Amino acid sequence: MIIVSKIHRNKNLPPLNALAAFEAAAKHQSFTKAAEELHLTHGAISRAVAQVEERIGVDLFLRRHRRVYLTAAGQRLLKTTSQSLDALSRTVEEIHRHDLSSPFLVVSCEPSLAMRWLMPRLGEFKALCPDLHIDLRMAGGPIDLLAEGCDVAIRRMDFTVKSDYQVTRLCAEFAGPVCSHGYWTQLENQNLNNANWLHSRTRPQAWYDWLSTEKDQTMSPNTEQHFDHFFYALQAAQDHLGVVIGSVPLVSDDLQKQRLIAPLGLKPTGVDYALLTLDGVEQDPRIAQFSNWLLGVISDT
After folding, report:
1. N or C: which end of the chain has fewer CB atoms below 10 A?
2. CA–CA separation, 292 and 171 (whole Å)
3. Which CATH code fits 2-97?
């Protein structure tokens, strides 16, 4: 009888996504606001709530003049649902944080940094840690590590980080005009006023930020060219199309191999690159391996 009763209860439990929709609607006492929070339609929320009510067999909302109000049964279910979903979320987070046996480390990295600096060095990491596989995701700016399924993120720290994230500083950024040696030698009077200034829409302020640190802030381009991404602008500079504001560590390899030169030098921008994690890096041996290697190679940049 106990087994039958347990099966009976399980069969009457509404689906998890329907309970989540109910919780949002109950919390706001609005199907419209619930739909906005969960990125669903009003109709989807309404159908999910109806599904929960059908399974339970009672009304959870009173519907009056395009408004909804929780019934006593709805209030009881909201309390239990919220507690249960919170507990489930915490458990999933703990599992995600402490799944130390996984052979994969999911790394989110700024696209330009990934393509021009990190990827050329991942072979070295693979040789040192052959049993740990890097799953590289390219993205920039703010990140929700849990929601995006990432273990760590490498970011240019020009945004506010969540207070519960651990931030491991990797290096300071240095920036200045860079171009090919051929372009610079052919530039009239080697004067930036005669140059084609290359811009990227992902870093639209780069030239203006650099100019603000110069004695002569009246410099202006002879011509300008815009690209969707920073790495396109850097490639254009390498291909003798003009001058771009390049930054270390992104152009470190290009400068070392003389694919690009920095004729006026590079200056600190006041922005750092950092590794973002949910917990301290030493709590996960996979992250510790990657972090220690990363700090070692970036210090040589």
Report:
1. N
2. 13
3. 1.10.10.10
